[in-house]
Amino acid sequence: MLRRSLLAVIAAPVLSAMALLAPAGAQAQGAYPNRTITVVVPFAAGGPTDTVTRLVAESMSRDLGQTVVVENVGGAGGTLGAARVAQARPDGYYLLLHHIGMGTTPSLYRKLSYDAVGGFEPVAMVTEVPMTIIGRKNLPANNLQELVALVRQERQKLNYANAGIGAASHLCGLLFQKAVDAPMTTVPYRGTGPAMTDLIGGTVDLMCDQTTNTTEHIRAGAVKVFAVTTPERLASLPEVPTAKEAGLPGMDVTIWHALYAPKGTPAEVVNRLSRAVQAALRDEKVVARFADLGTAPVTQEQATPAATRAFWQADIAKWRPVIEAAGEYAD
Ligand code: MLT
């Protein structure tokens, strides 16, 4: 239902309790931080958000002098993990690293157990990641033109994996179906990490997913790649055509990621975390790994609370009319 509506709209030029249990002894004592910090990834382990988060968390832990652990809370298009953080104690020890879903969820989901806009303090943007259109390796199509013909012929007999409504893979899949002008069958997962396992195993046909999850599988020949969703080819996958040059204009999609703390987290804690993200984004190891996976850190100026808030609010404002025009929601 939602898919049908968004298909129409995306034709536009674009496109617990556990948190309440916050880590024991949550009252900060002494200088922040003085104990382990947890970053929630609202998708399954092994996927693109998880990959970005683990790289940044490891580097942040060196800057902060404390362990930064990652907790995967997948499900419901990222809203389960986001809810845990929004409802957590605002002390800087329980954080969220989320993507474009922070821009779409406030409009897509009208019934949430948390405040999808007012429940968070933005800390720092991290990266923007291109996407790739990929398929199982024995799919009977060897380039984007052949894939388009196959989708138009097989339609709902073909299925595509995604990480739930509002997930990056969901939005990109809708855009692809709109561009091809043929529907397919959706198979939702708790994240594109497990979806990738099934794609490699051949139990699903297609996926549109971030290069941070697809690059190595493409290079290994474990999946077929048909296009990247950027205006220019990627240095990390130079042989892969853009969707535009392969015949599908309008598929210009990148997925932004940022770190958030619960609303009410003291400004000095938010600023300390922001500086730690900035240090991670200057870390040569992080920069090199990002480049290998087809992405790059945002600028130091973008990785501030104010710039992140402005970007996030602009993204909410961009998506709200699109989703409201569709008139159908995830709830
Ligand atoms: C993930 O980490 O699994 C992805 O970011 C899911 C998605 O949004 O497609």
Automatic annotation (TrEMBL):
The keyword Signal applies. This is Tripartite tricarboxylate transporter substrate binding protein BugD. The lineage of its organism: Bacteria, Pseudomonadati, Pseudomonadota, Alphaproteobacteria, Acetobacterales. The keyword Acetylation does not apply. Keywords: Signal. Residues 1-28 form the signal peptide. Pfam families: TctC (PF03401). InterPro entries: BUG, Bug_dom1. Belongs to the UPF0065 (bug) family. It comes from the Bacteria.
